[in-house]
Specification:
Blueprint (H helix, E strand, L loop, with lengths): L8 H34 L11 H13 L20 E6 L6 H11 L3 E7 L9 E4 L4 H11 L4 E3 L13 E5 L2
Parallel strand pairs: 1-2, 1-5, 3-4
Antiparallel strand pairs: 3-5
Length: about 170
Amino acid sequence: MDVSLHHDEGTIRPWRITAMIAVAVAAVELLLLVVVGGALIAKPSSGTASRPHPRAAAARSATAKAAPAKIHRAAVPAAHLARGKVTVLVLNGNGRQGAAAVAASRVSGHGYRIGAVANAPRSDFTRSLVMYRKGFEGEGRRLARDLGIRIVGPLDGLNASQLHGAHAVLVVGA
């Protein structure tokens, strides 16, 4: 039996045209979905979105709590005076006899001048701290860094007249 491999062009042609039209329609739909989806992602609607699901909100808040907060710090001013020109008042804030003298020896070992060694108004400081006069923040922060002290700030509880000319104050804690 002879089978003719010759097909009539009229029977194949409508199928090809239908497939081409279907592909063109699908391509246009895909293009529209990409454009609309991109527009929605790039510029989300304000106020028209529905409220988030409670579990999704809880998951987002848990993620936000787990992420470390970014801390933006202002630029720390540089020290303008050499260590040998900076005078430090050393105060004993822990009540142990001789603690301020030992700290003063350590401060002078770093090259700073000692203005005076005395007792702080209180003797319940649990940690050492450095305070600085206005205009000498860089020198105060450098002193704290040299001594490994993390608490640094402007004068608090002392007047500049009580410093006897010192640029910074070291309060020795426990």
